[in-house]
Specification:
0% helix, elongated, mainly beta, 76 residues
Length: 76
């Protein structure tokens, strides 16, 4: 991916990066032959400009808990 701009905003220590991933299943019929993507796992990883060099398991004073997972059983 390329950046929208050539430079980051001049926010100093107030920059927050958020990355996310959706895991889905395709077992629910939508219409023939299409199937509906049902999300069953969402993972979010965030870090600020203050904690970007820290280990993953360490929470940040500025952005708090850095990893989040949301799980839902898929319906068949």
């Amino acid at each position: 991916m390329r950046l929208l701009k050539d430079a980051l905003p001049l926010a100093g220590d107030k920059v927050l990066y958020v990355f996310y991933d959706f895991e889905t299943t395709q077992i629910t019929r939508y219409r023939d032959p299409a199937k509906l993507h049902v999300r069953n796992l969402v993972r979010v990883h965030q870090f600020s400009s203050q904690c970007e060099d820290e280990e993953d398991g360490i929470d940040c004073v500025l952005c708090g808990r850095r990893k989040h997972s949301f799980w839902q059983d898929s319906v068949g």
